[in-house]
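> forwarded from #structure-qc
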């Protein structure tokens, strides 16, 4: 696998490579071939046996020409294999754009670059992994960059007012999406394992970091935090205060409701005789349809779908001299003041304001038209 660490100068590229790639590989017993300025003796003191697994490559003068490490195919192809897992070495190449530039100025170096490109395309046959480190992937050989699988973008958190942390973003390839973002703190225990290429004084670093005020030190952030704290305290105070006043009010509400219900029930008992049927009108009728015969014409009893409440609907025929003159529904009768009670599919009972009207049965008289027909036939 070919991975890439990107970052500006002083952004934590070397720290990321040593702390999370070189040291873990040495702990696992894997050989590391690199041009990073590692402190081999210090690493050996903390991890015995690691010195034999470290191969540091430096620039060399060959026939008066400076040959950078990892710029030739001969700098690769190490035959070392892990005795247990069989994996090959880990190549960690710092400032890889110098060894594998995108544009080769000397045409004589083009064949050498082609061989390096071929090795990168076949590197998994040697079970080797490569970690490239550079400031910009646009400066690196395009054929090699196209093979990168994971990119680690490192940037010091100076803009947030601190130089003790750096931001790391994990990206799927050089043109893919960022899949993870984290803020990591520089741990001093790793500084002893390598030397940084940059030449900067501690005073300059403190001046740069102190020139920017962190977000949590600005007064809007502090004011918002104080307001949020006050709101939380007031909410807790109100929640604890309400239960102290609620118990005394509860029994008062109960005592006030009970007398009202009793007064209504008493009022209903007192007013009940006032709604009894009384003779009204010139004919002194006790109910609206007094004097008319009532016959049950239809009745329907059932339960409503939305509840278990029963309902009774139907029609009553009003007859005069044995002939039905009008059909009245149960709803009309109830609005007029009648109370209807279901007795059977052919019998209902009816009352009007306490007056028992009696049973209403399905006995609609059958009227014969034979007599009327004969009368019509005799007409000349």
């Amino acid at each position: 696998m070919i991975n890439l660490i990107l970052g500006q100068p002083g952004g934590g590229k070397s720290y990321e490579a040593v702390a999370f790639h070189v040291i873990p590989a040495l702990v696992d017993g894997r050989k590391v071939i690199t041009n990073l300025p590692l402190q081999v003796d210090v690493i050996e003191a903390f991890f015995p046996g690691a010195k034999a697994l470290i191969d540091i490559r430096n620039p060399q003068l060959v026939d008066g020409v400076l040959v950078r490490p990892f710029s030739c195919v001969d700098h690769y192809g190490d035959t070392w294999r892990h005795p247990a897992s069989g994996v090959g070495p880990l190549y960690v190449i710092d400032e890889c754009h110098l060894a594998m530039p995108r544009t080769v100025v000397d045409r004589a170096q083009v064949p050498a670059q082609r061989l390096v490109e071929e090795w990168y395309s076949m590197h998994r046959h040697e079970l080797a992994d490569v970690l490239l480190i550079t400031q910009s992937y646009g400066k690196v050989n395009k054929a090699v960059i196209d093979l990168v699988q994971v990119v680690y973008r490192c940037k010091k958190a100076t803009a947030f007012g601190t130089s003790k942390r750096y931001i790391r973003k994990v990206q799927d390839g050089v043109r893919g999406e960022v899949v993870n973002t984290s803020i990591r703190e520089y741990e001093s225990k790793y500084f002893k394992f390598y030397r940084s290429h940059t030449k900067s004084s501690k005073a300059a670093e403190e001046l740069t970091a102190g020139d920017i005020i962190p977000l949590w030190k600005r007064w809007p952030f502090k004011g918002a935090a104080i307001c949020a704290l006050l709101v939380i305290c007031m909410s807790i105070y109100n929640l604890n205060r309400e239960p102290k006043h609620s118990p005394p009010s509860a029994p008062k509400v109960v005592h006030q409701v009970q007398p009202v219900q009793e007064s209504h029930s008493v009022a209903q008992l007192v007013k009940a005789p006032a709604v009894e049927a009384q003779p009204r009108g010139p004919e002194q009728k006790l109910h609206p349809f007094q004097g008319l015969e009532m016959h049950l014409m239809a009745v329907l009893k059932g339960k409503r779908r939305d509840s278990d409440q029963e309902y009774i609907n139907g029609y009553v025929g009003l007859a005069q001299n044995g002939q039905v003159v009008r059909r009245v529904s149960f709803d009309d009768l109830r609005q007029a003041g009648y109370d209807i009670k279901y007795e059977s599919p052919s019998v209902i009972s009816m009352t009007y304001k306490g007056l028992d009207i009696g049973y209403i049965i399905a006995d609609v008289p059958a009227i014969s038209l034979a007599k009327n027909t004969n009368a019509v036939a005799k007409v000349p």
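QC bot note: The radius of gyration is 51 Å. The first helix runs from residue 13 to 27.
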